[in-house]
TrEMBL record:
Keywords: Transferase. Transmembrane segments: none annotated. Residues 8-136 form the Gamma-glutamylcyclotransferase AIG2-like domain. It comes from Streptomyces spongiae. This is Gamma-glutamylcyclotransferase. The keyword Protein biosynthesis does not apply. SUPFAM superfamilies: Gamma-glutamyl cyclotransferase-like (SSF110857). InterPro entries: AIG2-like_dom, GGCT-like, GGCT-like_sf. The keyword Transferase applies. GO terms for molecular function: transferase activity. It comes from the Bacteria.
């Protein structure tokens, strides 16, 4: 049994106009639309952000829906980009299923890469919070 084919919520280098968007997403997506995910805050990587689960937080990004024929390939590519292997304690990120809000307020389930627990604890203790929740405005 394969992974549930959910869209992806992207909030950093995979957003349109950012460094990894063209390399990983160009030609592989059916749609990309602005969205907000509640229950997350952003920390500066540096060079890329980490989303950390935090009640009351809101992160700005996009919902990316993969073309069906490219889904499996894209999922593997994004897991590699995010250094994510299911169940590996050395992961920098974990891929989790969460609700994301479209601009019209409708909610959809999506995959999102969040900081793995050890990384999240370190960021909460010493990280640089991106208070706007939008990596593009973090300057």
């Amino acid at each position: 049994m394969g992974v549930v084919r959910l869209p992806f919520f992207v909030y950093g280098t995979l957003r349109p106009g950012e460094q990894n968007h063209d390399f990983y997403l160009r030609g592989r997506t059916e749609s990309e639309e602005p969205a907000l995910m509640r229950g997350l805050v952003l920390y500066d990587g540096p060079g890329y952000p980490y989303a950390v689960e935090e009640p009351g937080g809101v992160v700005t990004g996009e919902i990316v829906t993969a073309r069906p024929e490219t889904y499996d390939e894209l999922l593997r590519a994004l897991d590699r980009l995010e250094d994510y292997t299911p169940g590996d304690p050395r992961n920098l990120y974990e891929r989790v299923e969460r609700e994301v809000a479209r601009t019209d307020g409708t909610l959809v389930r999506a995959w999102v890469y969040v900081a793995a627990p050890t990384i999240a604890a370190r960021l909460r203790a010493r990280g640089r919070l991106i208070e706007s929740g939008d990596w593009r405005t973090a300057g």
